[in-house]
Each structure stands twice: as structure tokens, then as C-alpha cells.
From TrEMBL:
This is Rhinocladiella mackenziei CBS 650.93 unplaced genomic scaffold supercont1.5, whole genome shotgun sequence. The keyword Oxidoreductase applies. Signal peptide: none annotated. Transmembrane segments: none annotated. GO terms for molecular function: oxidoreductase activity, acting on the CH-OH group of donors, NAD or NADP as acceptor. The keyword NADP applies. Keywords: NADP, Oxidoreductase. GO terms for cellular component: cytoplasm. Belongs to the short-chain dehydrogenases/reductases (SDR) family. InterPro entries: NAD(P)-bd_dom_sf, Sc_DH/Rdtase_CS, SDR_fam.
Length: 336
């Protein structure tokens, strides 16, 4: 077996202005487009007269007709529903293709992982023994967050890979996975939320060098949307301000998505990118783009530059070894 090394990729620039018109005429699927960031993504494409098949959304019928948007009702946790949505999108696309898929569906809230088992984060250690517990039988945590925020994205990625790889080279093959900045940080929130968002990043790293698609992650900071309750909004507003921070902006999340959607060199033409050990190259493969408050980033978004390891580091050496292993390419029945 020929030995290959693992090339690193470089951070992309994240300008304040992005030319959205470069995505004109693209066919786009957005999951979770009923409100929040998903709705903002859909409107950005639709307002620029892009063909945008959308799942899980219902808007004014006149708006849908005028902006080439097609509504497909979809439970993203259901494989068959997503399959139907993809087939509908392809059938109604002007060129019967999909250029861009934005796996955006997601929820937040309590998963009842800590409820009844541990004190809240504000409780002092001395009070732990005094806190209420589950008794003899622990309560099962809710898994809805995990199902929507990770499992549904696995389904979306599988469908995107299946259909996009069958398209001609004249079409883009762009998959954008929405994670969260909590996919990179420790969090005081729901464990299943943090686990799902870390998992989305892991999905990107598994797909970006072998799927044949442009695969990238958008990872927003806290963004105020209609989905956020008044209690959460008020608490975050106060606590972020106390720490010299604030909310990221919806328009900057749109900008981050459009930055990826309008530049096919981001995890694009440089694939495949493994090479012989005596060669050297830099590959622009899948990136994680954070959406941040403008106090932190002037443009409102930036490349986190955390997806590769420095040449010569232990992690890079381990990654190179893993990149040369083929045991998971054996027939399924032989993989244990």
C-alpha cells in the first residue's frame, strides 16, 4: 500500500462583504427553514432569485411562488421524509440537480440530563448532598435534541452525498453542516446538545476528504432569534454584557453560509489531497467557520482554524497513521 501523508489546510479569509450574486441560479435545500437562522438562509437565497427547495417550512404562498421557493413538509428525524424532500427538490429544480445543501435543523432546551440528579451549576459543592436526587430510579434523559441536532444531519449528509455525486461536474456539490460554537467549547447547557454539536464537527471531518463533496461547518455563537424564549433572551443579554460580550447577528450567520456557498475553492478543486510522503501541498478542505459578535470579529465571522494539526506534531503524526488505515473499507460483514 502506498503511504500517504496528511496535508494541512489553511484558514480562509472572511471578508465583511460577500458577493451573494455568485450563487445565482443555484438549487438549494435548507432543512429547518421555518424560522430562526434557517428562515434567514432561505430568504437570502430566495431574495437573490435562487431556486431554493426548502423542507420543514411554510410561508406565504405568494412569496414562495415569486421567489422560486418550494415547501416540503418534513420531519428531519424521519429518513423517508428527508428522502422524499430530496426527490421533490431534484424534480422541481430547473436543472434537476442540487448545488447546495444546508443541514440547518436544530433545537435547544433542557434534555433533563441533570434534572433530579445533580445540583445546578450555581449550587456550591457543600450543598450537593442536600440536593434532590432521583431516588432509586434515575429518569431517562430526553434524546430529542440529539436526534434532531445530529441524527437528522447524518441523514441529510448521506442523502446529499448520494445525489450530488451523481451530478455532472458543472454543478456545485456543497454541503454546509450547522454546528455551534458549543461544538468546540465546554458548556453549561444540555449535555446532549453539546454532544450533538461536537458530533457535527466530527461528521464534517469524516466526510471532507472522501465524500466528493465540499463539506464545511458553520458554528454560530449565541444569536437572538424568535425561537429564543424571553427568559433565555433576558438572562443571556445580561450575562453576556457583564462579560463584555453580546449576541452574534443573524446577517453574519447568513454571510458565513454565503461565503462558503459562493466560493467553490473551499474544499473544492484540490481534492483528492492525500499525496506521497516526498510531496508537499496545502489543501483547502473542510473548514469550521464561527459566527461571532462583532466585538470579537469585525466581519462577524471567522475561520476557527482548528481543523488540522501542525506538521511534525504528535496529532499530525497520529492523523497520518489513521489516514493510511483501510480496515473500515472491508466488506461490511467483515467489519467488527
Amino acid at each position: 500500500m502506498a503511504s500517504t501523508t496528511y496535508p494541512i489546510s489553511t484558514a480562509i479569509d472572511c471578508p465583511e462583504k460577500v458577493d451573494y450574486s455568485k450563487a445565482s441560479g443555484k438549487s438549494v435545500i435548507v432543512t429547518g427553514g421555518s424560522s430562526g437562522l434557517g428562515a434567514a438562509y432561505v430568504r437570502a437565497f430566495a431574495d437573490n432569485r435562487f431556486a431554493s427547495p426548502v423542507s420543514e417550512e411554510y410561508w406565504d404562498l405568494r412569496y414562495l411562488a415569486e421567489h422560486s421557493v418550494r415547501y416540503v413538509q418534513c420531519d428531519v428525524r424521519n429518513w423517508q421524509d428527508q428522502l422524499t424532500a430530496f426527490k421533490s427538490a431534484i424534480a422541481h429544480s430547473p436543472q434537476h440537480c442540487i448545488d447546495i445543501v444546508i443541514a440547518n435543523a436544530g433545537i435547544s432546551g433542557s434534555d433533563e440530563f441533570f434534572e433530579g440528579a445533580y445540583p445546578p451549576i450555581s449550587v456550591m459543592e457543600d450543598d450537593i448532598n442536600a440536593s434532590e436526587d432521583d431516588g432509586d430510579e434515575p429518569r431517562q434523559p430526553r434524546t430529542g435534541i440529539l436526534e434532531i441536532n445530529l441524527l437528522s444531519l447524518v441523514y441529510t449528509a448521506k442523502l446529499a452525498m448520494h445525489y450530488m455525486k451523481r451530478q455532472g461536474p458543472q454543478f456545485d456539490r456543497c454541503l454546509i453542516l450547522k454546528s455551534s460554537i458549543m461544538g468546540f467549547l465546554d458548556t453549561n447547557g444540555s449535555p446532549t446538545y453539546g454532544a450533538a454539536k461536537h458530533g457535527v464537527r466530527g461528521l464534517m471531518k469524516c466526510l471532507r476528504r472522501r465524500s466528493g463533496l465540499r463539506v464545511n461547518v458553520v458554528a454560530p455563537w449565541y444569536i437572538a432569534t424568535p425561537l429564543m424564549s424571553d427568559a433565555v433572551m433576558n438572562t443571556l443579554t445580561t450575562q453576556l454584557k457583564e462579560q463584555g460580550s453580546g449576541f452574534a447577528l443573524v446577517e453574519d450567520s447568513v454571510k458565513a453560509v454565503m461565503r462558503i456557498a459562493t466560493d467553490d475553492s473551499i474544499n473544492g478543486e484540490l481534492l483528492p489531497c492525500f499525496m506521497d510522503q516526498n510531496e508537499s501541498s496545502v489543501c483547502d478542505v473542510g473548514r469550521s467557520i464561527a459566527v461571532l459578535p462583532r466585538e470579537t470579529s469585525k466581519s462577524g465571522y471567522l475561520d476557527l482554524d482548528l481543523d488540522d494539526f501542525k506538521t511534525g506534531s504528535l496529532y499530525h503524526d497520529l492523523q497520518t497513521i489513521c489516514s493510511n488505515l483501510t480496515h473500515r473499507q472491508l466488506p461490511p460483514q467483515e467489519q467488527k
